[in-house]
Specification:
Layout: H1 2-12, H2 17-24, H3 28-36, H4 52-55, H5 58-67, H6 79-90, H7 96-110, E1 123-135, E2 138-149, E3 154-160, H8 165-179, E4 185-188, E5 195-198, E6 204-206, H9 208-217, E7 220-223, H10 233-246, E8 252-253, H11 256-270, H12 282-292, E9 305-310, E10 316-319, E11 322-325, E12 334-339, E13 343-348, E14 351-357, E15 365-366, H13 373-378, H14 396-409, H15 411-421, H16 429-442, H17 447-459, H18 483-497
Parallel strand pairs: 1-4, 1-8, 4-7, 11-15
Antiparallel strand pairs: 1-2, 2-3, 5-6, 9-12, 10-11, 12-13, 13-14
Length: 498
């Protein structure tokens, strides 16, 4: 630049171009260029670059790279693989560099450009993400629901064991309760839980549960293009933000509910942030979102999958590949099933007959031992081999009670022990355990005694275990052996022998 300036100053002072070229030891063409441009223009190509060795192979390369769009990303052609195939299959004699440069320029030309968007208040976007968490000491994959309000960048995050349709709906219900309002519209992707089929004209056929959820909230759903996450880029970015900021390091919580309460608190704290380029905090902009949104309906949507089934001969009902037990008296009957995110509820006609924690395993069997006690009471020989009772951990007092009952009454004692367990159909384990311990302490070993003590405990009245009033209660009575009685016993044995 110094030489550039000196030449221009000399010529401006009256020096001719010939003299300047001779004085500064440069060509007259260079002097002419220095006088034409106020600063060096740099090299300018006037003709397109020609690659004679490559041009005949360009259609082949383009065909390979276009075909890569239909295969997994990790199995697509690299520049090195294109170079090797051209040499081996088509006799290419050029170098690797021209192949690499062509592919790089081709990718640059094909990159999509985007229009900056402005989001009106009151609208939302929703999506699911994945991250590893530790719940109850078990490291597992969490599927977390994210609802984003693009105008304010406010968000709601909630985690689930699986991204099933019920989780989608449950996430919306909790998000609306969190904000206290319902968005005017929500943009979704084409998840199979939401869209059952895309028709040839592009119309989305909604899934049954998703369609039922839209009606009470009066939400206008909008679907992005298949495979185009940028159609809902705001929530896509928030999925990554939630994973990096809320789930690093790996969260460790005792229950899913505790984890979700913590996530809600993080969403509230984020409303105090001021994002780049914004003069207001997220919470201040959220006020405009809430003002444009709809009111909550009188009752929240019941986010559950509803279906029907039949009870098997083993008192089991199948739901989503897993079997759940019901009371044996409902064997072979038609039942209805409601699958919530955290539990499975089974009913017969207008009565709820069973509730189970939902299992997300496959071909799992979930028993409630109490459901099978009436049948075991009838088939008492199955007591020790009954699968529903395996792994049922009762307090030690129950094992002691059974041992004493069987010692005194044999098979009938086992049946009475099952009758004691059947009290759990109406009372809590804590109350029954206290009654069993009290029965053992006073030596009243029997079903009637345990039931009487349990009722007295629940009704808060003193027990009345007087043998004159309850003569049928078994009672242990041990007397001290006298010498006279012993001799009479011996003489009686001698007479029998004679």
């Amino acid at each position: 630049m110094d030489l550039y300036l000196k030449v221009r100053l000399a010529c401006a002072g009256g020096m001719s171009q010939r003299e300047a070229a001779k004085h500064f030891n440069v060509s007259r063409d260079t002097v002419r260029k220095m006088l034409s441009y106020s600063e060096p223009p740099g090299y300018r190509r006037t003709a397109a670059v020609r690659r004679p060795k490559l041009e005949a192979f360009v259609p082949i390369i383009d065909a390979w790279l276009d075909g890569d769009r239909q295969v997994p990303r990790k199995q697509r052609h690299t520049a090195k693989r294109v170079f090797d195939r051209l040499r081996e299959e088509h006799g290419f004699t050029g170098g690797y560099t021209i192949i690499k440069d062509y592919i790089r320029q081709r990718e640059q030309r094909s990159r999509e450009m985007f229009v900056p968007l402005a989001h009106a208040p009151g609208h939302a976007q929703a999506d699911f993400g994945e991250a590893m968490v530790e719940i109850g000491g078990v490291v597992q994959k969490a599927h977390f629901f994210v609802l984003d309000l693009p105008h304010s960048d406010a968000c709601y995050v909630r985690a689930y064991p699986a991204a099933v349709a019920e989780a989608w709906m449950d996430g919306h219900v909790h998000a609306f309760a969190f904000f206290g309002a319902v968005p005017l519209s929500i943009v979704y992707d084409n998840d199979r839980c939401l869209v059952s089929k895309i028709l040839p004209d592009g119309t989305r056929q909604r899934a049954r549960l998703f369609s039922g959820y839209l009606s009470p909230y009066l939400i206008r759903d909008r679907s992005g293009r298949p495979g185009r996450g940028n159609d809902k880029g705001s929530v896509e970015g928030l999925v990554g933000y939630a994973r990096r900021n809320f789930m690093v390091p790996i969260p460790r919580f005792a229950t899913w509910e505790a984890f979700n309460l913590w996530l809600e608190e993080q969403c509230r704290k984020r409303q105090n942030d001021r994002l780049r380029g914004e003069s207001e905090t997220i919470g201040e902009r959220l006020k405009r979102d809430l003002a444009a949104m709809q009111e909550l309906p009188a009752a929240p949507f019941e986010a559950c999958d509803q279906t029907s089934g039949q009870v098997s001969s083993q008192a089991l009902v199948r739901y989503r590949t897993n079997d759940y037990s019901v009371p044996v008296r409902f064997g072979h009957q038609e039942v209805w099933i409601r699958g919530y995110v955290g539990e499975v509820v089974i009913g017969c006609r207008g009565e709820v007959i069973a509730r189970h924690v939902r299992s997300y395993e496959r071909e799992d069997v979930i028993f409630d031992p109490i459901h099978y006690l009436p049948l075991i009471e009838q088939k008492i020989n199955a007591l020790d081999q009954a699968a529903p009772l395996q792994g049922w951990h009762l307090p030690e007092a129950f094992a002691t009670l059974r041992r004493l009952m069987e010692a005194r009454m044999g098979k009938h004692g086992r049946r009475e022990y099952v009758q004691v367990l059947r009290l759990l159909e109406s009372f809590t384990l804590a109350d029954l355990h206290a009654a069993v311990k009290q029965a053992l302490d006073i030596g009243a070993i029997g079903f009637d005694a345990v039931k009487h003590l349990l009722l007295c405990r629940v009704e808060r009245r003193p027990p009345r275990l007087d043998m004159a009033i309850y003569p049928y209660l078994p009672r242990a009575r041990v007397e001290t052996t006298s010498a006279r009685s012993y001799m009479q016993l011996l003489s009686g044995d001698a007479k029998d022998a004679a």
